[in-house]
TrEMBL record:
Topology of the protein relative to the lipid bilayer: Single-pass membrane protein
Record localization: Membrane
Keyword set, alphabetical order: Membrane, Transmembrane, Transmembrane helix
Pfam families: Beta-prop_FAM234A_B (PF23727)
One annotated Gene Ontology cellular component of this protein: membrane
Xref: InterPro entries: Beta-prop_FAM234A_B (IPR055409), FAM234 (IPR045232), Integrin_alpha_N (IPR028994), WD40/YVTN_repeat-like_dom_sf (IPR015943)
Official protein name in the record: FAM234A/B beta-propeller domain-containing protein
Domain FAM234A/B beta-propeller residues, every copy: 78-347
């Protein structure tokens, strides 16, 4: 586990232009000397990175949730890295893993974004972005099981809403639920909740239980309708890996009254729930945002935002998913966005290979089908990787060149899918181990007009692909996290560059 001392020990390797030039010739890009790789002993990261300038140097820095083995206290539950060279800015402790992604807000008004981020065991912290000092913590007990006795569980990703407590700061919509200690699928699960929290103090302003009495692991999403926040729609999901659930829509006004009884049911799954957040975009060009949702049962549904009618459904029998789709213009035949979905073949907790589908956004019809050796909870992203005017997809893939032989070695890499040329190519070097849940970041980290990529893997893993058992205990963890700069690829080529989008709101603007 990492030390609490100011001499935080980690390994930083700077890759030179020569060592990666051959690799990036595959996609017509060169690398820069500012590329780096960090090795984080003792950290088991499953968080997707978010970026913001914490140092005031004009380069976005990186916030990553971390932690050690599940249910264990860690002094590295949240980490901030300098975007320029990868050196550690600060780290904060936690009683369990922080798997969420950061929400940024200048809480203390020092002109630097502060960080709100959550995870297991009711971990939800507001952290001074400049110093790493704790501003507030939702639940303060240090015992990793005290949260369960108090009735608080996992915090998902939050959404900022207009100020509700007259302190001049936006406030936070967030979900809490999911008790991972209950293994029996027939045992009662704690009812999930939606909460509105003061971002200044972390205190509860409003809360309500989900209407079907199920658990929740799904981050809520807001679809803004008009200028009155009370009329804005809140999309939220219930259920889990082996517990049925639903997708609902309510209004923020319902939550202002601490009651979700009037929430409207949009999608029902009898045996498996909805974990991935829904995606908001206009699918029929009527000017009203529509919704796209993937269920654990590997169904993808498009829903009309005006009528709540299902526009189309695509399903992959024998598969499951926890990933959001990538959105972009892939088919090139209309002005309606298309989707790339990634599923795992198998049933929780044992999965084999991954399968992916390119879906026509107008009809839901599969245009292309792909297969990969191993699955990842991480979501695909959208980038025109050869700047030819056609969107492509970047997906994290876990592979083993010799899965049943003496040289078995799992590696994680980023693969680009070029639909126009019907080809695939690597866009990163391989990292040791497997990436279970980190969605990469693709964007302009240092404002030089070119694309940068952030990605990671969990290195200490003895599991093989295919046939991974996600419940199998891992040995002492180590996380690898890397930056790669794609010089010559313009930043404008990024269409959907982070988990839940660059703004973290799961809203795609056509």
């Amino acid at each position: 586990m990492m030390s609490n001392s100011t001499n935080f020990r980690y390994i930083l390797s700077i890759y030179t232009l020569c060592s990666l030039a051959t690799l990036f010739q595959l996609i017509g890009c060169t690398t820069k000397k500012k590329d780096w790789l960090i090795t984080l002993p003792g950290v088991q990261a499953t968080s997707s990175p978010r970026v913001a300038d914490l140092t005031g140097d004009g380069v976005n820095d990186i916030i990553l949730g971390g932690g050690g083995p599940e249910w264990a206290h860690s002094d590295s539950a949240v980490l901030a890295f300098d975007g320029q060279d990868g050196h550690l800015l600060w780290h904060t402790p936690g009683r369990n893993q922080v798997f969420g992604s950061a929400t940024f807000l200048d809480i203390n008004r020092d002109q630097t974004p502060d960080v709100i981020i959550g995870g297991r065991s009711a971990e939800l912290q507001a952290i001074d972005g400049k110093t790493g000092h704790l501003i507030w913590e939702f639940f303060t007990a240090t015992d990793s099981m005290a949260h369960k006795r108090a009735g608080w569980f996992n915090f998902t990703n939050g959404q900022l809403i207009p100020d509700q407590d007259a302190d001049g700061l936006d406030d936070l919509l967030i979900a809490n639920g999911g008790d991972a200690t209950i293994m029996d699928t027939k045992s009662p699960r704690p009812v999930g909740r939606l909460l509105l929290l003061s971002t200044r103090t972390g205190h509860i302003l409003h809360q309500a239980r989900v209407p079907d009495g199920k658990e929740t692991y799904c981050s809520p999403v807001i679809s803004k309708r008009g200028s009155d926040p009370a009329q804005w729609l809140v999309l939220f999901g219930t259920g889990g890996e082996a517990i049925g659930g639903c997708l609902y829509k309510a209004t923020l006004g319902d939550l202002f009254h601490d009651n979700l009884a009037n929430a409207k049911l949009l999608v029902t799954e009898a045996k498996k729930g909805i974990v991935a957040p829904p995606l908001v975009c206009d699918l029929n060009r009527d000017g009203t945002p529509d919704y796209l949702v993937t269920t654990v049962a590997a169904r993808t549904l498009a829903i009309d935002g005006k009528t709540d009618r299902v526009l189309w459904t695509f399903s992959a029998p024998g598969a499951e998913t926890y990933s959001m789709p990538a959105v972009g213009y892939f088919t090139g035949n209309d002005s309606i966005p298309d989707f790339f979905v990634s599923y795992a073949v198998g049933t929780y907790p044992v999965y084999g290979r991954g399968i992916q589908f390119l879906l026509d956004g107008a009809t839901g019809r599969p245009v292309h089908e792909y297969a990969t050796m191993g699955f990842s909870y991480g979501s695909p992203l959208t980038l025109d990787m050869n700047d030819d005017g056609f969107d492509d997809v970047v997906l994290n893939v876990n592979e083993d060149d010799d899965p049943h032989g003496p040289r078995s070695k799992v590696e994680s890499k980023l693969i680009g899918f070029d639909f126009r040329n019907n080809s695939q190519s690597r866009i990163s070097d391989a990292l040791p181990g497997a990436n279970f849940a980190i969605t990469p970041y693709i964007g302009d980290l240092d404002n030089d007009g070119s694309v940068d990529v952030l990605y990671g893997s969990l290195g200490a893993t003895s599991v093989n692909y295919p046939g991974v058992d996600v419940m199998r205990p891992l040995p002492a963890p180590v996380t690898y996290f890397a930056r790669r700069s794609l010089s010559g690829l313009p930043a404008k080529t990024v269409r959907w560059g982070a988990y839940m989008g660059e703004k973290g709101d799961a809203c795609f603007t056509n």
